[in-house]
Amino acid sequence: YFKAFTKEFTTGENYQAGANRDLQTVRQRMIDFLQNHSQEVRPPACPPLDPVGSSDITSLFDKKSHHYTAIVFESTSSYVGREVILDLIQYENIVVRRALNSDKAFLEKLGVLSVPSCYLIQPNGSHGLISKLKPLRSVFSSYLKSLPGVRKKLLLPLQLPAQENKEEGTEIKVWKEFDKTKLYMADLESGLHFLLRVELATYKMLEGAELKTFKDFVTISAKV
């Protein structure tokens, strides 16, 4: 993990996800990690992931806006809302928020009978529940991305630092074309590094046939 706006050299912080490394668990741990950032170190591009209250939602009703506002109603244990919020970061003309199902009377008033559900406030202020959508992150995100006027943000070209004025006569280094018929030391070292430092590191222990295979590989590597 690399903190935003780090000015000093750092190799990053190792963030352990625990023993359970299935995709869903790791993704949820990352979301918790983002949400629990203090405001001082939270990257400005990270949207608010905390739930909004019923009064915050009703204040948006019948008011004109330049964008859609989608509210994902969900239970406290659900990650759907936060996942949809993060899915829509790269899109403009839409803001996604999440709300919990604790205020039963408010949900009943809006016609939200089950969670997770997605409630949409139009730019003209009209609002209503999006019905006939499966309560899945992928379905919610796909629907919101398809709304008229919702599109991916244009990424500004990367601003590279201005090059210093070079003295006259300084040679310009020309990149050489690589020869596909040759084996380059950089590729060999990179492959060995990945195998020994990354792939091998996923095993806590090698024994039996696996250990013999690794010993044979090391022997061959040493010989050649």
From TrEMBL:
This is QSOX2 oxidase. Residues 179-223 form the Sulfhydryl oxidase flavin adenine dinucleotide (FAD) binding domain. Residues 43-150 form the Sulfhydryl oxidase Trx-like domain. PANTHER family: QUIESCIN Q6-RELATED SULFHYDRYL OXIDASE, SULFHYDRYL OXIDASE 2. GO terms for cellular component: extracellular space; Golgi membrane. It comes from the Eukaryota. GO terms for molecular function: flavin-dependent sulfhydryl oxidase activity; protein disulfide isomerase activity. InterPro entries: QSOX_FAD-bd_dom (IPR040986), QSOX_FAD-bd_sf (IPR042568), QSOX_Trx1 (IPR041269), Sulfhydryl_oxidase (IPR039798).
